[in-house]
Amino acid sequence: MSFSIFLVAQDLEEFDRKINQQSKNLEQVSREIDALQKRIQSASHRELTYSDELEYLDHQIGLTDRRITAMEQQLSLRREKVALLKKNKAQNEVLRDKLIDRYKKRVVRFYTTHTDDMISLIFTSDNMRQLFYRVKYFNAISKADKELYYEIIALIEQIEQETREIEAEEAEIQKTLASLRSEAASFREMKADRAQKLEKIKSDRKMLTQELEAKEASRMELQRIIASMRTQREDRLRELERQRRLRAATMSHREYPTFSSGKGNLPWPVQGTVIGRFGRQIHPVLKTETENNGIDIKAPEKTPVMAIQDGLVTTVTWLRGYGNTIIIMHGEDYYTVYSHVGGIRVSENEYVESGQVIAEVSDSGSLQGHMLHFEIWDSRQKLNPEEWLSRRN
Q1: What pTM, to 2 d.p., does this model score?
Q2: 3-class SS at 172?
Q3: Which of 133, 165, 264, 283 is surrounded by the most beta carbons within 10 Å?
Q4: How sure is the predictor about 212, in pLDDT bands with cuts at 50, 70 and 90?
Q5: Which CA distances in Å does 336 have to 19, 157, 268, 291?
Q6: Range with lowest mean pLDDT among 158-172, 199-213, 345-359
């Protein structure tokens, strides 16, 4: 195998690995959707509150959004793979034609001294492949001609294999596109339904109170999730260090500073305006005191959300009042939390670089529109993000 073919094989293997990972992500989301549907069905025997309806709807929207994003990423990967296959096929076809021309000239030179019947047998072949197989049985052919012959046959088989792969990938692309259109239509309907429900909740103090209580329960659940991560801490730290070594080996003088050394200078996860500070807060409508474990950053829909340092994605989940949520482990027992996000581009146990886009700003789980809820944790202690982020946003 030539070096260029080896590199193409490596590229195709990497595409297949990524496509397979996205397939696993889709399967996971589908399982979560099935589990949610069962929850909804089991609750149908009792009268659901308006807040319950909103919770189920918001959760469905979050999961559908994740499924659409996974489909889009898989679609993009398949298209890139097809482009690589087509490019390689075109190069192989050019090489095949050159080798065939060279082979024909050598065969003609050799057989001009043999009978007209033999020449007729060769050149009445229906196609070049049939010609090669006929010529194969003439023992007089030289060793060099045999090697050239086998090289051409291998190349033809490679082209045929690439053609089959292209056709299979293009069929998968069409299936994914059809599923995407269906999911997108369902997503738009659910979003419109959610907008109507939100307007009703915003004007109803009782429902606002219920939502606030539900968010408080989710706040405690988020703390529990982070605390429970200590059980897998060592395995995740080893994986994080392994990923860092891999990247350091390909980038000269690449260093990974500790999380704690970046205090006061860490990049902001999103560009926007802080509308919710860390600590005790007064609810703007209910005037009750609430606890904020992080900060809330107002930003336009689909604004990119970035990891503030390299790390390992430990959790991708949905929480009432927080919506789609991503948790990243950065080593030294530091974690960052990104909530109210959409268009999630990472999955659990995936390594991310500092500044890598992991999601987009959305209104998932939010009663205040599009924003990012952001938290920093040191083991089991919540920290004020504004003391850790750089002064300029």
Answers
A1: 0.76
A2: helix
A3: 165
A4: confident
A5: 27, 51, 12, 18
A6: 199-213
Map tokens 């959707």 to a residue. 33
Q: Contact at 8 Å (CB) between 132 and 149?
A: yes
**CA separation, residue 202 to residues 21, 36, 327, 366 (Å):** 40, 25, 29, 11
Most confident of 21-35, 129-143, 371-385: 371-385
CA distances from 74 to 30, 117, 172, 231, 357 (A): 15, 56, 10, 32, 17
User: DSSP E strands: which ranges in the chain?
Assistant: 273-276, 279-282, 289-292, 295-298, 304-306, 311-319, 323-331, 334-339, 341-342, 351-352, 357-361, 371-378, 381-383
Output the six-digit token pair for 320: 């009432």
Residue 115 has pLDDT above 70, yes or no: no
**Closest by alpha carbon to 263, among 308, 307, 293, 233?**
308
Do 374 and 385 touch, CB atoms closer than 8 A?
Answer: yes
Q: Alpha-carbon distance 311 to 75, whole Å?
A: 26
Q: State yes or no: pLDDT of 1 exceeds 50.
A: no
- Environment class of 311 (CB within 10 Å of its CB; exposed 0-12, middle 13-18, buried 19+): buried
Which of 295, 292, 307 is CA-nearest to residue 344? 307
For 158, residues 6+ apart whose C-beta sits below 8 A from its C-beta are 92
Contacts (Cβ under 8 Å, ≥6 apart) of 337: 222, 226, 293, 294, 325, 326, 327, 373, 374, 375, 376, 377
Sheet holding 341-342, edge to edge: 304-306, 357-361, 341-342
Please state the rounded mean pLDDT for residues 274-300.
88
* Main-chain dihedrals φ then ψ at residue 282, nearest 5 degrees: -105, 125
Q: Are 295 and 278 spatial neighbours (Cβ–Cβ below 8 Å)?
A: yes
Q: What single DSSP character describes residue 362? A: B
